[in-house]
Amino acid sequence: MPKHRGKSDLPEKPCACCNRQFTWRRKWARVWNDVRYCSDRCRLEARRQPACCKPPS
Q1: Given CB 3.0 to 4.6 Å as the disulfide criterion, which of 7, 21, 37, 48 pairs with 42?
Q2: Which of 52, 41, 50 is nearest to 17 (CA)?
Q3: CA nearest neighbour of 14 among 35, 41, 40
Q4: Each residue of 12-47: pLDDT tens digit?
Q5: How remote is the C-alpha of 41 from its chain's centroid?
């Protein structure tokens, strides 16, 4: 039996900056619990604006 997972079966979590859902990537396999941002842009933006990237709605 193959252990292949479909893309819809991969875990997701919200980005701490933009609140967008992003899915697990193979390169994050060992550090998935530590991953907080969906992209480098969000990670850098969070450093520039410590409170939060997303404007209040």
Answers
A1: 37
A2: 52
A3: 35
A4: 999 999 999 999 999 999 999 999 999 999 999 988
A5: 12
User: Tell me: the pLDDT tens digits for 38-55?
Assistant: 999 999 998 887 665 555
Give the burial string for 7-29 (b: 16+ CB within 10 Å, else e): eeeeeeeebbbbeeebebeeeee
Alpha carbon distance 1, 49 (integer Å): 48
Question: Taking the model in full, what pTM does it have?
Answer: 0.69
For residues 28 and 30, what is the distance between their CA atoms, to the nearest angstrom? 6
Q: Which contacts (CB < 8 Å, 24+ apart) does range 39-47 have?
A: 39/15, 42/15, 42/16, 42/17, 42/18, 43/17, 45/17, 46/16, 46/17
